[in-house]
């Protein structure tokens, strides 16, 4: 089976949560991980900075490059991509993980928050993909993985939070279009989304201290991402993947290790859009 040894991953929003978990899984193979995120100082409510994440990556067996990156800013993203490529000799994989969320109705969504979600989720994903492509074209097995949902255009996924749904589906539309646009170049564009809620610091902040009893661990997303990223890029592109389906296709059907102690499958909270 292919692995990620020596591969360079550029992961947005990787100072914590799913992005960091994907980086640590790759680091276990000896990968290089670029932690591209805004958090250089500890957040009042969310644990993790680019520097603590860097320590975690290196402890897991990889090499880390922590960079302060605002994915909305073209010059900053372009410079970060160049620094990553100069440091590690190229970029093999881009993970568009950075995202902003506000589960509010149309009249309850301030335009400042609307702009943030669309600038981070859609613009950030498009911009980072655009700037990574010249490097990915030179890679042996180039992948772009967006942490975004399958394109399920049912009204109940839009009505409660139109602005957020538009922003997340915009990331998925990048997969739909870019997978076909760059198929001949051999760059894979895929999406990955969880079946259930995932236990992250952000989820704790939104759902409260007991929400973890309804969540799977971040490792399920990391393991699913790993399986996608080690596939041949010319053979696996344009897919909208669900974490447990990816594992099942690989023969992994016992998912108990991804649940917290005492939590049963029936207790898990389904995620949005699935």
UniProtKB/TrEMBL annotation:
Upper taxonomic lineage: Bacteria, Pseudomonadati, Pseudomonadota, Alphaproteobacteria, Sneathiellales
InterPro entries to which the protein is assigned, alphabetical: HSDL2 (IPR051935), NAD(P)-bd_dom_sf (IPR036291), SDR_fam (IPR002347)
NCBIfam families: PRK08278.1
Pfam families: adh_short
Stored SUPFAM superfamilies: NAD(P)-binding Rossmann-fold domains (SSF51735)
Domain of life of the source: Bacteria
Record's protein name: NAD(P)-dependent oxidoreductase
CDD domains hit by this protein: HSDL2_SDR_c
Organism: Sneathiella sedimenti
């Amino acid at each position: 089976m292919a692995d990620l040894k020596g591969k360079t991953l550029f992961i947005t929003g990787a100072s914590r949560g799913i992005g960091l978990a994907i980086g640590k899984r790759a680091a276990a193979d000896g990968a290089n991980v670029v932690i591209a995120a805004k958090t250089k100082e500890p957040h009042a409510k969310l644990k993790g900075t680019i520097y603590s994440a860097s320590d975690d990556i290196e402890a897991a067996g990889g090499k880390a490059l922590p960079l302060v990156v605002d994915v909305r800013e073209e010059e900053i993203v372009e410079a970060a991509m160049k620094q990553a490529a100069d440091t590690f000799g190229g970029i093999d994989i881009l993970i568009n993980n950075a995202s902003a969320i506000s589960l509010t109705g149309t009249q309850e969504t301030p335009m400042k928050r609307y702009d943030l979600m669309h600038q981070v989720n859609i613009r950030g994903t498009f911009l980072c993909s655009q700037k990574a492509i010249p490097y990915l074209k030179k890679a042996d097995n180039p992948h772009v993985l967006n942490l975004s949902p399958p394109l399920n255009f049912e009204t109940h996924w839009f009505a409660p939070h139109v602005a957020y749904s538009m922003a997340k589906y915009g990331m998925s539309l990048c997969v739909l279009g870019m997978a076909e646009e760059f198929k001949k170049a051999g760059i894979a564009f895929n999406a990955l989304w969880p079946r259930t809620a995932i236990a992250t610091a952000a989820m704790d902040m939104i759902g409260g201290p007991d929400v973890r009893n309804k969540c799977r661990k971040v490792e399920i997303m990391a393991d699913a991402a790993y399986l996608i990223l080690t596939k041949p890029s010319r053979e696996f592109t344009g897919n909208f993947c669900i974490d447990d389906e990816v594992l099942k296709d690989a023969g992994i059907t016992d998912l108990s290790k991804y649940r917290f102690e005492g939590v049963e499958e029936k207790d898990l909270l389904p995620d949005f859009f699935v």
